[in-house]
Amino acid sequence: MLFFLKFQRIIKGKEKMIVTYLGHASFKIECGEKVVFIDPWLSGPTSPLKVEDVEKADVVMVTHDHGDHGYGEAIEICKKTGAYFVAINELGLQAKSEGIENAHTLNIGGSVAIDDIKVTLVHAFHSCGIGAPTGFIVKLPCGTVYHPGDTGIFSDMELFGKMYGIDLLMIPIGSYYVCGPQEAAWATKLVKPKVVIPMHYNTFPVIEQDPGEFEALVGKMISEVKVETMNPGDSRKFKF
Ligand code: ZN
Fold this sequence. Notes:
The chain has six helices and 14 strands. Helix 4 crosses helix 5 and helix 5 runs parallel beside helix 6. The relative contact order is 0.15. The protein binds zinc ion. The site of zinc ion (ZN) has 5 residues, from loops.
C-alpha cells in the first residue's frame, strides 16, 4: 500500500499548494492535510478570517513582534489547535511563557523539521521589540516558500534563491516601513522565484501603493516570474 502511494505520487508529481492571502503580510498555506499560517494578523482591518474561524493549524510562524504581524493571534491559534509556534528565540521563549509548549525557539540560519515541513529562519532588515526581525523559508512537499517578513532589500536574497530554490516569494511593496515597488522588483530579480505575491500594502495610508507598478517592473526586469496579485480573501492553487 505504501509503495502504491509513493508510486502514485511519483506519477502525479507534487501536490498542489493552496495559498490564501489574509491581507497585509498574512498568509494561510495548505499542502495536503497540512495547514500553515505566517504572520496571522487576523484582527487586522483587511483579514477575512478571524481566530474563531480557524479550525486547523499545524505550524504558525511569526516574523517579528510588531502588532501588524499577529503574534497575539498566533498564540490564540496555537492554544486552540495545538499547532507548533515558530519564531526567533526570544519570541519563542515569550510564547512558551504564555503556555505554548510546542514553541520552537530558532535563531538566524537554523532550521526545524515539523513532520514534512522544514522551516528555516533567515535575517531581515527591519526593527522590532523582542529578538530580531526575521523571514522564513518554508519547504513543504508542495513547494518552497520564502516569506521575508518586513524588510528592505539585501543581496543575500540572491543566495537564498540559489540555496533553497524558491518556488513562491511573498514580497512587501508598501514602502515607508519596508520595500517599495522598485526594491521589491529588484528583490524578486535576486530571488528568482517561479511566482511572486506582493504584500504589505494598502492596509493603511502610508503604505498605499499601486500593485500595477510592481507588476510592470517585474514584467520588464524578470518576465519569467509570474506575479500573482491577490486581494485579501483570495486563494490560488499552485503546482510547482
Ligand atoms: Zn514590522
